[in-house]
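User: Sequence in, structure out. Go.
Assistant: Echoing your sequence, followed by the structure tokens.
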Amino acid sequence: MKKLHYAKTHVEVFIHFLKRMSLKCNTKTLLLFFVFACTAVFISCSDDDNNGQPHDPNKPVVLTTFTPDSGRIAEMMLLDGDNFGTDRSIIKVFFNAMQAVVINSTGSRILALVPRLPGDTCTIAIEIGDQRKEYANYFLYKIEASVSTIAGNGTDAAVYDQGLDKSQIRPVYIGIDQDYNIFATDTRDNLVRINVNANTIDVVTTGEQGFNHRCAPMASPLTNVLQMGAEGSANRDRFLFCDPKTGWIPKMYFIKEWETNGYATPTDMTHYACLLCEEDGNYYTRYNSGQLVRIDPATWKAYIVGMVPSGIAYGLAFHPINKKELWLAYDSNGGNVAHSICRVKDVTDETILGGGTMLASFEKLSGPTNGGHRDGPIAASQFRAPRMINFDVDGNLYVGDNGNHCIRSINTNTMMVETIIGIPEQRGFKDGNKDEALFSEPHGIVTDAEGIIYVSDFANNRIRRIAIE
């Protein structure tokens, strides 16, 4: 697939959006047009008494009002006050923890663009030098989301050679590599690669080669190799890797030595994931009997770090910014963490709770464990049998909320939970916007570098694509 480049600023996001809308002009022209449009609006909206004075660090920054009070990504914001100065290079504007692009400043008015996904309710802060001030009022961010189908016609079969719209697949979990290849697991223990541009599906590996459809294909952030765990009583020590340099031909790796660190070796041999921790360069996996295991990729020696609650947790993901944080999504059989989103704050910290074996940095984050649907602060939120989880590059966590038939997000800065798309507790199939789209038991979820979300919509027998802003 053709690789797209991640937009590093929100001006670039806007340009990329325009280009996707098939405007026939080059990037430089679009940038000039956009900056000119923003500046024109800024000038027309500015006060006649713009002071144009530089920022005085000996005087306080004063905030008065901002407009509008709600909006979407790249919305133009007018931020009024005093002692901003005219050097926009020293002015930082934040919507919660997300930094906005500053277009210009007159000294008493700043023109900035709303960043992508800062959270639904935002505190706007301005930081100049060692001064940081927050506006008294909140800004309401409006999420725009839409879903479309990229593969599967709704039939439960294994037909991959008729084009994407006529393909038949029962997708379970999903992955994507750095080259935008989409991978899906099929209930028939096939791992397939979906090429949207070529309108094709290719089988990468099969059950006969050691693949199991409950093991999500997770691409290493360093090597781009797909890494998967294993299921079953005979597979405690086995992992399956697929390297794009060799055409994703599957290769098995085995733990060669165990260091138990005083813990019992896993009694439930299932370990669905194999994730690389960029912080220390080791692989990590979690067994259903609760052991969190570190594996040295050079020697394949396994070391039990400590215990987390036992039970099925299909979803595991490392935070892309706080790289030691391992987030987990427990299914319905997780006991006192059933239906819950949890995390290990630091996988390199082996401190245990007093009087037990549970890792001290393990936290249950979401609320009641009886299975339900509730947005809001994560401590009060509810999920129902969440499956796969995945982060975008900004640290927003997306959850395939299987039992609620919808896609949820967690802003890990504000720790607020929101339903992105899908009507909670209503199963069905429909493409469209946030108010009408329907899912049925979404299992797998993954994001690409541009924030596009791909979902394996299990009971609908389809792969779906979500564009979110």
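User: And one key feature?
Assistant: Residues 1-36, 43-50 have pLDDT under 50 and may be disordered.
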